[in-house]
Amino acid sequence: MSLPPRTAVLIVGAGPSGLAAALSLNHRGVNDIVIVDAILAGENSSRAMVIQAATLEALNSVGCLDKLLPIGEKAQALFMNHGSSYLISTDFSLLAPYTKYPFGLVLPQTATEAVMLEKLDHLGIKVWRPFKVVSLMPSQDTEEQMFDVRFESGEIVKAKYVIGADGANSVVRQEAGIAFKDPNGDEKHDYGNLSQIILGDVSLTSPPQLAARFSITSYDGNFTLMAPFPASTSPDTSRTVYRFASSVPAEDGTAPHAPNIEYLQSLMDRCGPHSLSSDPAINPHPTRIEKVYWSSRYRTRSAVAERYFTHKLDGGVILLIGDAAHIHSPIGGQGMSLGIRDAISLGPVLKAHIGSTAEGTASDKLFEDWAASRRKRALSVVALTKQAMGIINAQRKMWAPLVWCTYAVLRFVGRFTFFKRMLAYRLSGLAEI
Q1: What is the CATH number of the domain that holds 240?
Q2: Strands (DSSP E) found in 165-288
Q3: CB under 8 Å to 348, separation ≥6 — which residues?
Q4: Which of 85, 138, 193, 292 is the most buried if burial means most Cβ atoms within 10 Å?
Q5: For residue 131, is pLDDT > 90?
Q6: What domain of life does the native source organism fall in (predicted)?
């Protein structure tokens, strides 16, 4: 089936950010939209697992929350442990004065996307697949400032606004000539054991008792995360399935792209808490991985686009959202939520620009202000994730008694409500609203 030859808004990328952008635009009355994606449905490798409070607020503003809340599970706390010892925890219920959603919604990205796609389909907006963009050139055969967006198939779509939601290797960003660098100038991306993160959806022979929906353990420069899937969105309804995440010890070298059960078990034994070990000498009730439903490797990198907006005077407007605009460590679960908020905040701005263009009073300041605001928020999240990685990495570099003293202080301040509220507020994304 051929692509439409012309559109006002072309969204490149149908992950959560691209889909959220379409929902936001439609909600504002912009219906001349085409969404394209380079891969077939269900082939994406990114698997976020939680939606933060600020993002729930944003999704509610475009009428896309009522179908998400019933299938997700509300996480009231995030527990952080040092080895087998409790360290600190958040209490998201303390956010009640600031939001209608004082929790994190545990929901796999695949389910979030499915709900968004169903909503768009109901609105008559489809995703065109698989269509890969190869170039953007100013259109020469129209009086309007538009782009000729060429696809690998040879087809061309004319578009006035091109939204790049096509991931960290964004073709849209590259075609726009926008730099994508670490904001601190660190292009080596050497984060020790945290330089690679392994994700896996697994079932276990002896399911552990978790104190919270999300439980993070760090020790000696490594970290692991274990969280059970909501029953309604589990890949296997006959048993409990967990999202397992782990750092990769530097001595392992390059981890497998899709780790098998043996490799995941090795990471769980070496990096996880004793309660997840399969060694009976360590864990009286050995836990073993029974089945792997999906697994992937993530190379940790921090980068932010030099700018999120550019206006080619002989072409149209290019805007960046989601991973095309910023990437960072998955620690803290901020990536998908930040991208969705990028997208939803863009809707009213683009609608206003379309309106002012029709009136002959268009100004790029609308986009400049939006881009500066979103970039500032991305820099804040990158700083947050780097701080978290720095704390974990310090365990290998610091004198052991100093590590224990540092964590003793954290345990002490973590008892106070003001600290729990501050941590929950920072993780929730509400600080940017």
Answers
A1: 3.30.70.2450
A2: 180-181, 196-204, 214-219, 222-228, 241-247
A3: 24, 28
A4: 193
A5: yes
A6: Eukaryota
